[in-house]
Amino acid sequence: MCVVIYPYCVMLNLLSHVPCDCQMGKTVMATHEGRVILTDDLHLNNVLFVPKLHCNLISVSQLSDQLNCFIQFACSLCVIQDRLSRRLIGMSERRDGLYYLQETHAAHILAIKDSRSLVVELWHQRMGHPSSQVIEKLAPVSGLKHVGGFPCDVCFRAKQTRDSFPTSLTKTHKPFELVHCDLWGPYNSPSSCGARYFLTLVDDYSRA
């Protein structure tokens, strides 16, 4: 739901006052419905225009369904990534218990406050994308003032981890008694034969 039309909405349709439930049991009326372009990668359809709202609100479930994306919440940050490529397409900063979407160009999701943050980010790339603790150690040497909190698209995609699988107590005694399967896909670009999935089969006994 939104309260500001310009410069986000590109198409509006008149509605016959659709009721919308808000906090504290209050009901407000939506007068229009349209398409909203927040950034180059964040396009939302069926957005309701509610004149009596005090701020624009984005539904996390609707955002995930429409964009088919990953949404990860941290203590002070919300990251929106493409589900297939893991490319960073949006970021929100937490303030007073709410996550505010940064109004930045989607091709470069950057939190540049001044020229110093750009210099720090340049050194972050030159040094092979180290952690913020390493960058802080660089500041006394080079005279740079550390500016924390800038997002790095490469770090978000390359440094993601997942929990390890639990140790299996199952023991096999002959080939094909237990076969592990892993199906990967779909991939954006098909293979020469038109396939978009990759299947891996590993025999538990022979590991072949």
**Helix count from the secondary structure assignment:** 4
Number of E-state strands: 9
In whole angstroms, the N-to-C terminal distance is 54 Å
Helical coverage, percent range: 10-25%
Counting structural domains, the number is 3
Radius of gyration based on Cα positions = 23 Å
Mean pLDDT across the residues is 75
How would you sum up the global shape? Answer: extended
Low-confidence stretches: 105-117
Q: Strand pairing plus helix content: what structural class?
A: alpha+beta
Strand content: 25-35%
Order of helices and strands: EEEHEEEEHHHEE
* Major beta-sheet overview: 4 strands, antiparallel
Could you give the order of strands across the largest sheet? 4-5-6-7
Explain the overall architecture.
By secondary structure, this protein is of the alpha+beta class. The protein folds into three domains: 9-101, no CATH class; 115-157, no CATH class; 163-208, no CATH class. 18% of the residues lie in helices and 32% in strands. It contains four helices and nine strands. It has helices at residues 60-67, 115-126, 132-142, 153-158; strands spanning 9-21, 27-37, 43-49, 69-73, 77-82, 88-95, 98-101, 179-184, 198-203. A four-stranded antiparallel β-sheet has the order 4-5-6-7. A three-stranded antiparallel β-sheet has the order 1-2-3. A hairpin with a 5-residue loop joins strand 1 and strand 2 (27-37). The protein is extended, with a radius of gyration of 23 Å. The N and C termini lie far apart (54 Å).
